[in-house]
Amino acid sequence: MKLLILGQGNVGTHLYTAFTAKHVDCTLHSSREGLDNLPAADCILYAVRDDALEQVAAQVHTDRRVLHLHTSGTMPLTVFGDDKPHAGVFYPLQSFSKSRPIEDYSSIPVFFEARSIDDVSAIYSLALMITSHVYEVSQQDREQLHLCGVLVNNFPNLMFRIAEDIARRIHVPFSTLLPLIDETAAKVHQLSPCEAQTGPAKRGDQNVMNRHLQLLQDPQIQELYRLCSTLIQKLPS
Amino acid sequence: MKLLILGQGNVGTHLYTAFTAKHVDCTLHSSREGLDNLPAADCILYAVRDDALEQVAAQVHTDRRVLHLHTSGTMPLTVFGDDKPHAGVFYPLQSFSKSRPIEDYSSIPVFFEARSIDDVSAIYSLALMITSHVYEVSQQDREQLHLCGVLVNNFPNLMFRIAEDIARRIHVPFSTLLPLIDETAAKVHQLSPCEAQTGPAKRGDQNVMNRHLQLLQDPQIQELYRLCSTLIQKLPS
User: Fold this and answer.
1) Residues of A in contact with B187 (CB under 8 A)
2) How far is residue B173's CA from residue B53's CA, in Å, rounded to a whole number?
3) Where are the beta strands (DSSP E) in B93-136?
4) Looking at the complex, does the CB of residue A164 fall below 8 Å from at least one CB of chain B?
5) What is the mean pLDDT of chain B?
6) How far apart, in whole angstroms, are the C-alpha atoms of residue B45 and residue B13?
């Protein structure tokens, strides 16, 4: 099968690397130009920004047999018009950065959706080329997974930024926090997040929490500390 | 040097493992009984709960030459009375769980404080037995580091708990989130947390953020989502 990836951003570049490593006949193409003269392909993977997806798809005219798949965690399948009966979603749940190579794509889960049941096996086979973790999910569940991605990646990274700022102010290198950051991730391979929870909020140590609130100067970061501590105590354990 | 570790909890157990692996003459002893009849030691490491520390230390009577060190991120050095002229703090910044072995103690930073300048080299040497990352910090800076620990460990783990709950509701195993959790930690070894920040808040994608707020049902978790998103956009990049 001939695969064409549209979009040379973080997702497109990484998917291109993953598929070519598995000897899939794959072309990486800009989503910004030459859409009226695309190389022939059996499947087109759209790796473009959510807000550009519908417009890019509308400019792509192919044989009706071509399979069109977007890679967004949030956009519906209906961004593909009726001229594309074979359409679906191919959503890899990972944080891709061009500047950071991924060593092992095979552990990354791919969540897919198909417009027609006839396309399920084709999409499934495509995903299995790069990973052994393939799940068919509905639009709504994919949105929930995208939300999970925000929770386990974007928000922890925000905490790292706040901590980096504190470390900088006391002239301690951010790298001293890395073993703890690594252990935080490693722990939940073995313990449930609930079992892995430690710290002053978990212990109900109000003295320490009050002291930390004094140390934080930004009112919104103080509020974040309060809210996280409240939730750590409130969530069922 | 003979080392006595008081407290058989997570910290005491792990420090005992780390020091014995380096062939330090080390004894692990309960902090709850037999404090009036402790084995002889050159240095006593107190690995006890913050709220028990002062009381435990008061019950320990030794030769005045013995070095007394506590392991708390928040308690001051003054929990040790005048009968202990050689006193200090030995704070390893890591999240220890008895049920999880640590493979490599040598990357864990130890932050120390000494009552007298005469004890600095002894504490430094002791820490160097198990790690190559040893820093002398003030009480106030140690509290800031403890706060950093809460930010990079306790709060990300809270996010994992919220995500686990969502994944459970849509019948997707939590393990599908682990590659993203691992990559979140791995990324900041190479990129600064600021450079590593991605997601709808970073992109200013209000549609996605509104949709995520709809999906979250708990008002406090919605507030957490709003606050994190605001801070991601507000913090200097």
Assistant:
1) 95, 97, 100, 157
2) 41
3) 110-114, 134-136
4) yes
5) 96
6) 12
- Chain B residues whose CB is inside 8 A of the A51 CB are 205
Backbone angles phi, psi at A70, to 5 degrees: -100, 165
Confidence bin at B159 (pLDDT 50/70/90):
very high
How far is the C-alpha of A65 from the C-alpha of B82, rounded, in Å? Answer: 85
Residues of chain B contacting residue A143, judged by C-beta atoms under 8 Å apart: 211-212, 215
Q: Is A55 helix (H, G, I), strand (E, B) or coil?
A: helix
Residue B237 has pLDDT above 90, yes or no: no
Of A60, A106, A105, A103, the closest CA to residue A83 belongs to A60
pTM over 0.90: yes
DSSP symbol at A38: P
Probe site for chain A from B106, B139, B155, B198 (most A CB atoms < 10 A):
B155
Q: How many CB atoms lie within 10 A of CB B6?
A: 26
Please say whether the beta carbons of A138 and A113 come within 8 A.
Answer: yes
- Burial label for A211, CB within 10 Å (0-12, 13-18, 19+), is middle
Contact across the interface for A147 and B224, Cβ inside 8 Å: no
Contact call for residues A5 and A28 (beta carbons, < 8 A): yes
Among A residues 10-39, those touching chain B with beta carbons less than 8 Å apart: none
Is the pLDDT score of A237 beyond 90? no
Residue numbers in A near B160 (CB within 8 A): 151-152, 188, 193, 196
B94, pLDDT greater than 90 = yes
Residues 123-152 of B with CB under 8 A from A: 133, 135, 137, 141, 143-152
% of chain A surpassing 90 pLDDT: 92
Query: What per-residue confidence (pLDDT) applies to A100?
Result: 87
Cα gap A56→A68, rounded to integer Å: 12
Q: Output the pLDDT for position B69.
A: 98
Question: Is B216 in Cβ contact with A147 (below 8 Å)?
Answer: yes
Q: Please, what is the average pLDDT of chain A?
A: 96
Query: CA-to-CA distance for A184 and B93, rounded, in angstroms?
Result: 12
Q: Would you state the pLDDT for residue A99?
A: 87
Confidence of residue B60 (pLDDT cuts 50, 70, 90): very high
Tell me the ipTM for this assembly: 0.95
Q: What count of CB pairs under 8 Å joins A to B?
A: 302
Tell me what the mean pLDDT of segment B68-88 comes to: 96
